[in-house]
Amino acid sequence: MKKLIVLMLSIVVLTNCYAQRKSKKAAKEEVAPQTEVVAPQPAEQPEVPVVTEECLVNLSLFNESAKNKQYADAVNSWNQVFENCPNANRAVYTHGRNILHWQLSQAKDEATYQKLFEKLMFMFDQRMKYFGDDQRYPTPWIKGLKALDYIVFAKNDDLMKPAYQWMEESIDGLGENTEIEVIRQFVVLSDKIYAVDKTHGEKYISDYLKANEILENLSKSSDSNLAAQAAQYKNGLDIVFAQSGAADCATLDNLYKTKIQENKSDLSYLNKIISFYRIVKCTESPVYFDAAVLAHKIQPSAESASALASMSFTQEKFESAINYYEEATRLSNNDIDKADFQYTIAQIYYSKLGNYPRTKTHALNSLEFNPANGKAHMIIGLAYAGAKGIFDDPVLSKTIYWVAVDRLNKAKQVDPTLAEDVNKLISSYSRHFPSKEDIFFKPELQDGKSFYVGGWIGESTICR
After folding, report:
1. Residue 451: helix, strand or coil by DSSP?
2. Of the four, 41, 197, 361, 375, which is 20 to 30 A from 30 by CA?
């Protein structure tokens, strides 16, 4: 007991002495100016896991099992590598994703499932951390894949906003190199958000246009499979967007009528609005016209010229509309658009001005830009059938129906979707062919002979 008391007293004395020395030292430091320059300490670098021999052994073990889809055998060795050396090899993540998918399919309860789901999401974060600079599969690509897995495996999240954000980042980072399914799901999720939150309207439209542009470009890819899939996805998203209500002309006008004036000096913004209104066929909207006028003043373009043409047509200023469509044709870099502009001019000449020779001229121009435009052949056939003054002879005048039917047959050959309408016209025009009695007195019109229909028509046909 006596020894214990002595020991405690000694500790107290030593403690007091130490405190006094520390106090004196602190006081000295406060009084004395510091002359020594302390070098700045480098920022602490993140520790890179060491890839040990044990890691390499486990890497080999799970790699073989996973390649053979023996995921149960791969789990333990994969966990060892993922936890201890996540930077060992990209296979940690390519096979790890499949392993976790399998584990999720085997989960027996919600707690286990949720834990595995969180691990799957963390796995993508780790891949971005250690392999995000991979040239072929960079961080934006990984985010897209993470979003797709979130959509598949997340529970009780109808709007999937985290996935929506990751997909947007993926698209912004990769553009046309984005996985095509990411592009599709991005618009689908934006549509879901808009369905419950109408303030998302402008963003939804922006998302649709972004995806639409990429898919439109991909649909022209030299890779036929990719082009076909992109065209299919584009058509599907067009339907989704059309059914959303966001594409309603009145809805768009309410959304953009003030923004047009707010952005009246922003040519890029104005052209996007013009293009969008054309896509959703709201070309009679005053907002569309206002945007076109403002954009055309800044810098004439095919989009603004075609919008002004549409405005002129609505106002029944047909000559002005034709001039603007001609300007749109000159300014456009897209042959399909050029074909459409020229075909529209042909329509104006046919239905509004009754000028059939000019109808034919512009329909032929349209076919130069797009030989698959069956409607151009069709309108030439209509113009031929309406032609007057080609022949003074009433029997010879009936030969115009032969060339009209020739054009109608070409129309349905290049565009089978026109067959129903074309066949009705052919049936009608065939009743006006020269009769046997007519031909009896016209040996040049004998069945099977070639006959030239002159004038502005200028085409040969076969008598029948």
Report:
1. strand
2. 41
